[in-house]
C-alpha cells in the first residue's frame, strides 16, 4: 500500500473537441517527502490513445501526432483509468488550465479525484509575472531541477506534464495542498485587467465605472476578479454565476 502522498499531473493532447477525442495522455508524479517538502519523482510516462476518428489538422499542427501512430492504440475509456487511478491512489490530480483536462477526465474515469489547476494557483502565488502559460512560467521562473530536454518537445503530453509538475512542486512548497485545492475550485483571480481601455492595469488602479463594466463580463475569471476588487473596496457585487473558465489569455 502506498504511503507517500502523491499528486499526479496530467496533460492531454486531443484530436478535436469531442468527449472521446484524446490522442495522448502524459503524466508526472509529485510526491511529499518525510520532511514535508514536495519533489518531482521518477514516476512519469505517456500513452498514445485512439480517438476513434481522424485527428483534425488544427490539433495535428500543435502536437504533430499522426493518425497512423494512434491506429493500434487503446481507446480513451480503456486507457484513462489506469493512469488516472494508479495503484496506491492520489491525493489529487493536477493540470495547467485543468478545466480542459477535466472535460475528458470525468469523475467516473478519475475516481472522483480532486483537481489542482496550476494556472489558477500561479495567478495567486506569482501575480507579478507577465504571463501565466505553462511555457512562459517555465522560462520566467526557471524552476530548479527541471531538465531542459525532458520538457521538450512542447505540446506533447509527457513534456508538458513534466514542466507543469515543477510549477506544482514549487506551489506546494509555498502553500498547502488544501489552499491550492481551494483556489482551484474558484474562477481565476487575474492580477490585472485583461481587456478594455484599462487593459494591463492592476485592479486597484481602475475607476469605478471601468470596474463595474468588467464585473458584468461574460468571462467568469474576469467577472470574479473585478468583483473581488469591488469587495475589497467595500462595494456590493452582483451574484452572477462563478463557474470556472479557462478562456482568458494571460
SSE map:
Blueprint: E1 6-14, E2 22-32, E3 38-48, H1 57-63, H2 67-70, H3 76-84, E4 92-95, H4 98-104, H5 107-110, E5 115-117, H6 118-125, H7 134-141, H8 157-172, H9 177-184, H10 208-214, H11 220-232
Short description:
The protein is built from eleven helices and five strands, in the order βββαααβααβαααααα.
Strand content: 15-25%
Give a short account of the largest sheet.
5 strands, mixed
What best-fitting shape do the alpha-carbon axes yield? globular
What class would the helix/strand composition place it in? Answer: alpha/beta
Strand order in the largest sheet? 3-2-1-4-5
Overall pLDDT score: 93
CATH class placement of the largest domain: Alpha Beta
- What is the CA-CA span between the terminal residues? 41 Å
Protein name: DNA polymerase III subunit epsilon
Biased composition (Polar residues): 236-250
GO molecular function: exonuclease activity; nucleic acid binding
GO biological process, one term: DNA metabolic process
Brief descriptors of the model:
exonuclease activity, RNaseH_sf, DNA polymerase III subunit epsilon, disordered C terminus, 250 residues, RNaseH-like_sf, Nucleotidyltransferase, domain 5
Amino acid at each position: 500500500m502506498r504511503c507517500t502522498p502523491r499528486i499526479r499531473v496530467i496533460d492531454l493532447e486531443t484530436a478535436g473537441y469531442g468527449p472521446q477525442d484524446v490522442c495522448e495522455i502524459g503524466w508526472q508524479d509529485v510526491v511529499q517527502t518525510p520532511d514535508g517538502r514536495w519533489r518531482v519523482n521518477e514516476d512519469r510516462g505517456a500513452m498514445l490513445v485512439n480517438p476513434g476518428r481522424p485527428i483534425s489538422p488544427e490539433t495535428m499542427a500543435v502536437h504533430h501526432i499522426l493518425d497512423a501512430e494512434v491506429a493500434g492504440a487503446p481507446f480513451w475509456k480503456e486507457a484513462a483509468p489506469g493512469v488516472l487511478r494508479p495503484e496506491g491512489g492520489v491525493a489529487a490530480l493536477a493540470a495547467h488550465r485543468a478545466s480542459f483536462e477535466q472535460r475528458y477526465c470525468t469523475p467516473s474515469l478519475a475516481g472522483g479525484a480532486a483537481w489542482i489547476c496550476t494556472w489558477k494557483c500561479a495567478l495567486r502565488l506569482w501575480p507579478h509575472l507577465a504571463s501565466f502559460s505553462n511555457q512562459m512560467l517555465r522560462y520566467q521562473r526557471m524552476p530548479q531541477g527541471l531538465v531542459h530536454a525532458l520538457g521538450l518537445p512542447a505540446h506533447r503530453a509527457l513534456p508538458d506534464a513534466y514542466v507543469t509538475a515543477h510549477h506544482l512542486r514549487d506551489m506546494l512548497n509555498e502553500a498547502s495542498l488544501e489552499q491550492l485545492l481551494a483556489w482551484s475550485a474558484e474562477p481565476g483571480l487575474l492580477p490585472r485587467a485583461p481587456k478594455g481601455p484599462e487593459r494591463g492595469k492592476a485592479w486597484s488602479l481602475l475607476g469605478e465605472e471601468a470596474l463595474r463594466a468588467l464585473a458584468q463580463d461574460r468571462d467568469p475569471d474576469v467577472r470574479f476578479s473585478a468583483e473581488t476588487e469591488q469587495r475589497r473596496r467595500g462595494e456590493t457585487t452582483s451574484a452572477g454565476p462563478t463557474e470556472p473558465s479557462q478562456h482568458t489569455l494571460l
